[in-house]
Specification:
This protein has nine helices and two strands; from the N terminus they run αββαααααααα. The protein folds into two domains: 1-92; 112-205, no CATH class. It has 205 residues and is mainly alpha-helical. Helix 1 (10-29) packs antiparallel against helix 7, helix 4 runs antiparallel to helix 6 (134-161) and helix 6 runs antiparallel to helix 7.
Length: 205
């Protein structure tokens, strides 16, 4: 089954459902202490341990339905498993809190490496989704590279200086909203470098 054949609500539900589930579970369990095998675990650790298999299940269903996952989704899943596992193994929530930092640095680093080579890796990933000129892709890639680096720095500042609850709110809503706002503010770029009008003209000719 292709993404086009999926119900409009299903893909966002599979992508965002685990994150919202993490948020709700954290609010319920954050003040509780669980003793497992003689070791005490805070609610945050337990919620993290539950989040990993839930995310894996959601991405497994998405892969089963569509036949593929994006590279960004694969990297995110791997990072969740690695840092979620370290969080539970060492009973230390710091590992999971630094996960977004590592993910955004990886994304920013890969895009930045492509820019140094004079190419846009973003275009290779999203060319079918956004009809932009080569120049438009380069501009968007430069902006997104800096944006990812900025998110990495912001995440570090939040989890190291604010309360755990503040970080959970930031992770659940702040990062998602930031990405949404970023793309919403690229309207002029999309309009100025769109290839849609050109394609339509070529077709009519």
């Amino acid at each position: 089954m292709s993404e086009k054949n999926l119900p409009g609500w299903l893909k966002p539900a599979l992508e965002l459902g685990p994150i919202l589930g993490f948020f709700v579970a954290y609010l319920i369990l954050k003040d509780r202490i669980f003793t497992i095998g003689g070791t005490e675990y805070e609610g945050f650790i337990i919620v993290t341990a539950l989040f990993v298999p839930v995310l894996l299940a959601a991405m497994g269903v998405l892969w089963w339905l569509t036949g593929h996952l994006s590279k960004m989704q694969i990297v995110t899943v791997v990072m969740v498993v690695v840092f979620g596992g370290l969080t539970v193994w060492f009973n230390d929530g710091s590992f999971f809190k630094m996960k977004p930092t590592i993910i955004y640095l990886i994304f920013g680093g890969v895009l930045g490496f492509g820019l140094l080579r004079g190419t846009s890796y973003l275009q290779a990933l999203m060319d079918s989704m956004l009809p932009l000129t080569d120049e438009g892709w380069m501009i968007l890639t430069r902006r997104l590279t800096m944006f990812f680096i900025g998110l990495a720095v912001l995440n570090e500042l939040i989890w190291r200086t604010q309360t755990e609850t503040m970080w959970v709110y930031f992770k659940t809503f702040g990062l998602t909203a930031a990405i949404f706002v970023f793309f919403m503010t690229q309207g002029r770029l999309f309009e100025a470098h769109s290839t849609e009008d050109k394609d339509a003209t070529d077709t009519s000719d």
